[in-house]
Amino acid sequence: MLEWFESMGHWAFISVSYGLVTLAIIIDWASQRAAKAQLARTMKNQQARRRLRKGN
Amino acid sequence: MQRFWIWLSRYASPPVFYRTAGLWRPWLGWATLLVGGPALIYGLFFAPPDYLQGESYRIIFIHVPSAWVSMFAYTAMAGAGAAALIWHTKLSEIAVVAIAPIGAGFTAITLVTGMLWGRPTWGAYWVWDARLTSELVLLFLYLGVIGLASAYGDARRGARAAALLSLVGLVNLPIIHYSVRWWNTLHQGSTVRMFGESSIHGSMLWALLAAALAAKLYFVWSLLGRLQLRLLSAESEKAWVARELKLEPSDA
Description:
By secondary structure, chain A is mainly α. Chain A contains 2 helices and no strands.
């Protein structure tokens, strides 16, 4: 596998480097959005539980 | 001086900081794209090949900006750590914890792209060279800060312990920077000099500096987003968080 990769020449190394950065940026952006959505969901659930307790 | 402290305490207030960060983030995101996009496209396709390394040097447009930000982020983290230990402000404690994963990401990219550049240039992915080893130590320091911050049940105690580690680790920064001068390393010396002539051609230099600026802008963009998230989480019981997340404030 590694030998095949290296046999592709300089552009293989360059492509992986640029691809890695693109992937890191996408992961960072997506994880921040997911974390905010998760936080909003958790807080909404907490709110619903509080309301339920008050109702009881 | 007093006016500065009043200004600082106003902006260190979580709701004010949250809203200010929200205003800045879109501008920072677009600035990163507008500066970094052309720099990377030029570096990848249009910059002339290096007389010695040929095409593989194009990794410089990612490797060097990442390396600079990996050290810049650590300095920022240690600065926030000092503020956290001296003034016990919540925002600076949160900043220490928020900077660490971004810094670790930039350090990991530096190391991996360095390995990918090293193989066609030196014939090896890794050598225990002073520059490479000290950069690896930097990654371990970031991981240590992340681990220490999450090792405590009390998040604020964890952040303060992480702040202390970040200050101790500051000693590694001059070692990284001067390693290529202090020791006989396989890693090349500084390509860009702040004082004196840089050893890189002008047709490559502008793209490198633009990519470096974009990397710093991206760092601030990502940091503000993470600070916003951590502030929301840390202040989840406060009414302003409910307002920001469009929940009913009376129930929050």
